[in-house]
Automatic annotation (TrEMBL), chain A:
It comes from the Bacteria. The lineage of its organism: Bacteria, Bacillati, Actinomycetota, Actinomycetes, Catenulisporales. It comes from Catenulispora pinistramenti. This is Sugar ABC transporter ATP-binding protein. Keywords: ATP-binding, Cell membrane, Membrane, Nucleotide-binding, Repeat, Sugar transport, Translocase, Transport. SUPFAM superfamilies: P-loop containing nucleoside triphosphate hydrolases (SSF52540). It holds the Pfam family ABC_tran.
UniProtKB/TrEMBL annotation, chain B:
Residues 1-13 have a biased composition (Low complexity). The keyword Cell membrane applies. The chain crosses the membrane at residues 37-54, 66-85, 115-138, 186-205, 235-255, 267-286, 293-317, 323-343. CDD domains: TM_PBP1_transp_AraH_like (cd06579). It holds the Pfam family BPD_transp_2. It is a multi-pass membrane protein. This is Autoinducer 2 import system permease protein LsrC. Residues 1-21 are annotated as: Disordered. It is found in: Cell membrane.
């Protein structure tokens, strides 16, 4: 990898001694950061370390309490996101922020539509620009479809297209790859590299450390809102980076325990949903962790949703513990001991306007209910318990979930479903946006659950996670189960080959 | 340089070409237009059926009456639609219409210029709209609460000011009244005014950035702020426009009926909101069009004229309005589900290419 030396003269965009607090929470403490043209800069740190807050300061969303933002060496005050954008700063926020009622194309160009005479929006030019953009990114999506109903991965692709739709001098990406699989990530990186070589400055956040090493030249690490280190990546190892982030070394990211595999707990046979997935059959035994791999859009989440009864299906059946489930009823599925940690926490997992405590209690109100009344005391105790187990970082249990950092929201979703004590647990991207330290903790927890006899079906786009945790790997391609690979045979090559349809031989 | 370092990236599938931009173009547009088409069909069937039953119904005067009846509601519904598209609602339009109608009449009564009195009504309406807009946009109070409050406040102030006075035909200049009744053959002047407003606002919403931004912020306000949409300014503008149109409607109301008192426009907001919803403007914001809202208004007022023409008691009118409202909402719901299904299979086809 040739490293274009940073233009030592002046950083394109920089922060100097920036602090930012939300009430009692000090999200950033006197942080400085310099982004140079032609350099990709990584921002590392645990969940809640302040990365997204830093980005929002750069993007003009938050005004710093102290310190300054510098553009080309001189102090600027961005009045809002529009001002930052007009200065050439493109931002991909951690949570996709699309307009569900508008078309994908409009989403991408909102506020910046090309115009023709009399200031009218040139709808045709918008469409063509988006089509060209999608071709460049290799995205197969109809630009005219509404954004409503897009999967998280597709939403992220739209966000990426949005950020790349104008000639940004600074490209800021807050976990753009969290829901993407290898091939989409490779394509994104190729585009980002090209931009960087043309002189753009890049700021990149990811909890997948391999991606950080692949894309970036420098790294700044935050811990509890304070700067820990800012250094070149060359010469560092992943372990070094983890130590800077969490302040200690990690034993193992994939603490897989050997478990006793028991009876079939989840039996899915010939499940078909017209145009979505076809003839999907598999079993998960108690004590077993089965990984479900595949490219974005292969139909993995859709199968999970159908199994849990959120979506209907056209043929086939689902049985839990030998008893056939009635289709289309999540509440019956829950009663039968099924739990689903969904992919899209904003839309499906959490109620943003409710407190941490109530969110955790929500899926299992029954446990805290006596004679029809919910005991706030019991609810609180259980919430404290689970929040501690998952190391959720919050100021008070009564804080609204919406104010937690992205990774901490994900932990609350997990806590909510684990609190129900399921027999069969389906987790869809369980560690999306979760930092390495807690990732190991979530893996340990899943492993422990399996050891306790829970059947776990784990959907993940993070291939090392699948390889590290699964006893068996199911690979989906285009709505069908393309392969079943045992733990012994599962390697990056075999799984990717099955997911893409390439033969295993050509993968080497 | 671009050599991927992970095996996963080493063998990416061939990129599928995205759908040709034209092939699935305008699914959203088509759905919207379908709604408008459906209303037109219902309207046509209803009018033709009535005509068969009562052959004098669609005479030149009959058509003129239909259009005259619709004009006021269309104007207010267009303004309301813009507010609803931004994800808000304005319940004060009835009160604004009442007070502006009387204000215009008061000026005319004292020998004021007719053009000036229309302008006064529009400006007064815009000012009241601005008051709503400031409270909602800047004060961040939910619009339902704000405009429910101003509905009563404006009505109360109106009652205090007007008392038991009334504006009657004898107090108005004859030119003003003629303007309210006459037209170009079957098309009344008032309907022409409404048509111009409708076309202008529709054009603005469809073809201007600020118009598109109204949809954006109604669809997801937070995302709109992140996209750099000046949310407060747009919300304020929507309320000002809505108030101004309610004011214009007030002045035209006076021209049409040659009457205004303290009770004018009482309860009108409900009819307006029904028209907007029946016309397919989503109450959660971000979808629909002013054309739809105008058609909704035309449908509601036509029912009002049809029922007496075929000898049904007018007490049924409100019940039928209500049924239409529920019907419209159910249709929206069903359509939403069907579209979701359609999109899913489309997306799959797009992904798996032609061999899928
Ligand atoms: N709007 C807000 N109101 C209150 N607290 C907030 C708000 N935004 C962020 N915080 C708090 O600031 C801290 C830093 O959050 P931030 O989102 O920057 O973390 P992060 O490093 O991006 O974490 P993650 O990896 O989980 O995305 C957290 O403790 C969070 O709860
Ligand atoms: Mg974050």
């Amino acid at each position: 990898m040739n490293e274009p030396g940073p233009d030592l003269a002046v950083p394109v965009l920089a922060l100097e001694g920036v602090s930012k607090s939300f009430g009692a929470v000090r999200a950033l403490r006197s942080v400085s950061l310099s982004l140079y043209a032609g350099e990709a800069h990584a921002l590392a740190g645990e969940n809640g370390a302040g990365k997204s807050t830093l980005i929002k300061v750069l993007a003009g969303v938050h005004r710093p309490d102290e310190g300054a933002v510098l553009l080309d060496g001189s102090v600027v005050e961005f009045g809002g996101p529009a001002a930052a954008r007009d200065a050439g700063v493109a931002v991909i926020y951690q949570e996709p922020t699309l307009f569900p009622d508008l078309s994908v194309a409009e989403n991408i160009f909102m506020g910046r539509q090309p115009r023709r005479s009399f200031g009218r929006v040139d709808h045709r030019a918008v469409r063509e620009a988006v089509a060209a953009l999608f071709r460049r990114l290799g995205v197969a999506m109809d630009p005219e479809r509404p954004a409503r109903g897009l999967s998280i991965a597709d939403q992220q692709l739209v966000e990426i297209a949005k950020a790349l739709s104008f000639d940004a001098r600074v490209l800021i990406m807050d976990e753009p790859t969290a829901a993407l699989t290898g091939s989409e990530v490779a394509r994104l990186f190729a585009v980002v590299r090209a931009l960087r070589e043309q002189g753009a400055a890049v700021l990149f956040i990811s909890h997948r450390l391999s991606e950080v090493f692949e894309l970036c030249q420098r790294v700044t690490t935050l811990r509890d809102g304070a700067l820990v280190a800012a250094e070149p990546l060359a010469g560092l190892t992943e372990a070094d980076l983890v130590r800077r982030m969490v302040g200690r070394t990690l034993d193992s990211l994939y603490p897989k325990q050997e478990t006793e595999v028991g009876a079939v707990a989840l039996d899915v046979s010939r499940l078909t949903r017209e145009g979505v997935f076809t003839d999907v059959s598999f079993q998960v035994r108690s004590g077993e962790i089965v990984g479900l791999a595949g490219l974005v859009g292969a139909g993995r989440s859709e199968v999970a949703r159908a199994v849990f009864g959120i979506d209907r299906f056209d043929a086939g059946q689902v049985a839990v513990g030998g008893r056939r489930l009635r289709p289309g009823s999540p509440s019956l599925a829950m009663a039968a001991g099924l739990a689903l940690v969904p992919e899209d926490r904003r839309a499906q997992g959490l109620i943003m306007q409710m407190s941490v405590e109530r969110n955790i209690g929500l899926a299992d109100l029954k446990a805290a209910t006596t004679a029809g009344f919910v005991s706030r005391r019991t609810e609180r105790d259980r919430a404290v318990d689970w929040a501690a187990k998952l190391q959720v970082k919050y100021a008070r249990l009564s804080d609204l979930v919406g104010t937690l950092s992205g990774g901490n929201q994900q932990k609350v979703v997990l806590a909510k479903w684990l609190a129900t004590g399921p027999r069969v647990l389906i987790v869809d991207e369980p560690t999306r946006g979760i930092d390495v330290g807690t990732k190991a903790e979530v893996h340990r927890l899943l492993s422990q659950l399996a050891a306790d006899g829970v059947a776990v079906l784990m959907i993940s786009s993070d291939l090392p996670e699948i390889l590290g945790m699964a006893d068996r790997v199911l690979v989906m391609r285009e709505g069908r189960i393309a392969a079943e690979i045992s733990r012994a045979d599962a390697t990056e090559q075999t799984v990717v080959a099955a997911a893409t349809g390439a033969t295993a031989g050509s993968a080497r | 340089m671009t050599a991927p370092t992970t095996a996963a990236a080493g063998q990416q599938p061939q990129p599928q070409p995205p759908l040709a931009a034209g092939s699935a173009r305008g699914l959203l547009d088509r759905v919207l237009r379908m709604r408008e088409l459906a209303i037109l069909v219902v309207l046509a069937v209803m009018l033709v059926a009535t005509q068969i039953d009562n052959t004098s119904f669609l005479s030149e005067q009959g058509i003129k009456d239909l259009l005259l009846n619709a004009t006021i509601l269309v104007l207010v519904a267009v303004g309301e639609a813009v507010v609803v598209i931004t994800g808000n609602v304005d319940l004060s339009v009835g009160s604004v219409l009442g007070v502006t109608a009387f204000a215009a009449g008061d000026l005319l009564k004292h020998g004021g210029n007719p053009v000036l009195s229309v302008a006064l009504a529009v400006v007064l309406g815009a000012a009241l709209g601005a008051f709503n807009g400031v409270l909602v946009g800047v004060g961040q109070v939910p619009s339902l609460v704000v405009t429910l409050g101003t509905l009563y406040i404006i009505r109360a102030l109106d009652s205090i000011w007007v008392g038991s006075r009334e504006i009657t035909a004898s107090l108005l200049p004859s030119g003003y009244k003629t303007f309210g009744h006459d037209g170009v053959s079957a098309v009344p002047y008032l309907a022409l005014v409404a048509a111009v407003v409708l076309i202008a606002v529709g054009y603005f919403l469809r073809d201007y950035r600020s118009g598109r931004e109204c949809y954006a912020l109604g669809s997801h306000a937070q995302a709109a702020a992140l996209a750099g949409v000046p949310v407060r300014r747009r919300v304020l503008a929507a309320f000002v426009l809505c108030g101004a149109l309610a004011g214009l409607a007030g002045a035209l109301y006076l021209a049409r009926f040659s009457y205004a008192d303290a009770g004018t426009g009482n309860g009108y907001e409900l009819t307006v909101v029904s028209a907007v919803v029946v016309g397919g403007v989503g109450f959660t914001g971000g979808s629909g069009s002013v054309h739809g809202a105008a058609l909704g208004a035309l449908l509601l007022t036509s029912i009002n004229s049809v029922l007496p023409a075929i000898g049904v008691s007018s007490v049924w009118v409100e019940a039928i309005d209500g049924i239409l409202l529920l019907l419209a909402i159910s249709v929206d719901r069903v359509m939403a589900l069907r579209i979701a299904g359609l999109l899913r299979s489309r997306a799959r086809q797009a992904r798996t290419g032609t061999n899928g």
